[in-house]
Design a protein that fits this description.
565 residues, alpha+beta, five-stranded antiparallel beta sheet, four-stranded parallel beta sheet, 22 helices, Cms1, membrane, Protein CMSS1, P-loop_NTPase, transmembrane helix
Amino acid sequence: MFSAMSCRKCGSGIGVCLLEAMGDDLGDEWWDQGEDLGDSGGEDVHDVHDSHDSQDTQAAAEEPKKKVAKKRKLQTQEADKVKKKKTVQKKTITDVLATSEPAPGSPADLRSLVQSHFSGTRSVIEQEELKLPESCFLTSNDLSHSLSSYLKEVCPKWAKVQKQHTQTHSVVLLIVCSSALRTIELIKQLTTFKGEAKVLKLFAKHIKAEDQMKLLSKSVAHIGVGTPGRLSTLIEKEGLSLQGLRYLVLDWNYRDQKQRRMVDIPEVDYTEAGSCGKCLETRKYPTNATIMCSCAVNFNIPKMFLGDVFFYYGLINFHQNLRRYMDSRDDAQLVGRKNSLKAPSSYCEPFAYDPNGVPIAPCGAVANSRFNDSFTLRYRTSDGNEIDVPLIRKGITWYTDKNVKFHNPKTNSTLQQTFQGTAQPRYWQRPVYDLDPSDPNNNGFINDDLIVWMREAAFPNFKKLYGILNRAHDSFSQGLPAGNYSVHISYSILHVHYLALFLCVIISIYFHGRKEVVLTTLTWFGGKNSFLPIAYLVSGGLIFIVGVVLTVVYVKVGRDGKNME
């Protein structure tokens, strides 16, 4: 019952006694040994028995000590095994994202993006100066870090750095992220790190660039968190200087609800980006609505878009879902009825007639506020030349809208003669019969852009289809290649109208939201929309529960209600 080690540990004499006392068979019976000893003399026998008794007592005393020691040793070994099992290596960001799409970003991706962006505008020597060595990058692959704990690790002397910074128009730490919501989220995470530092929100939503420039000039700011578009605008207008910048954090691998990273889908806010700022100032006044203004915005696509590519324009903070706005249209006029063409519905007021009493076609607030920016997308080839990206501008509407809800009046005259005696909406730059000079069949009420706009959006932030990549061109047969692009915009400004309920007064103000262009592709499963599946699951679950309850009531009570009391 004892191991060989125990025997060696106890010694040969005691070991034998312990083993014999436990009844182990060593080959010689103890009673035979007693008889042999009895022949030699009684005293010797008594001494031997006394010796055995004393040794038995000693063994009995040491046995529980041995068991306790062995038990403790086993417990220690088991505890060590448990500790080894609990020791898990720290998870890294790249390990978690390695099996997902898109692949996690790395310093090499940033260097490649910088090189691709400046390849067409800088010489080889200038590009060499822009290359970032590996020593410029800080380790950022530990998934266990929060933003504050990570910054504490890479900026251990933050309190000292913060006190030494006294320069206005500049920040020490700049964090670039994908959206305004992400900006607010990151600012909340900075609470335990920032200390007495001042943090600025540098995004475009509901905040003017001029206001942010005033904040940067009035006081010293230490941390800036913002979006690429607004940061670019502030730098171009010299509202934000990079002289005092010491740390730049790119929120590269964060993914939004649509699994998009900051660099994956080009989403260019052009409201006041680049040369569009001067157009915004010009178009703030309704009297300048008919003045032409053009601008351009440059951007880079780091990865090729395979397959069909869709070009959208987007509006932020434009409420097409207001009841009075949605009602301000004449569907009978849009379907091509001649009587409604010259006698618009009262629902269109105050946009039914112009100041001279001429009926407006199409009438109403929805048509009057039509989005009328036009875009030309250009691709910069490897040799520095720019080519236009061909877009399909027809076939972008819903089938029911194009073939059921919208028709031109049926006459034997030309379209211009048909609409003679009507006026164009107040802020349109072209009459309805000349919306698309390049295609006579895309004019009037059946113009695709007009039909797309007239389908109101359910939310204040929305996107509408502008065109689809024409892959018949050899350069774009596989999709949209990676590289440098520019979008040239014929800029207009939307005007929102408010009608006082008891006064016959129209208040017109310019649109205070944002405008953007978006390039995207579609998967076989479609785009991600969290609202609909949640709504369907909740509704389906409630219906299922109600069905079970009614079934139980029916079974228990019976069809005739005999068991009901």
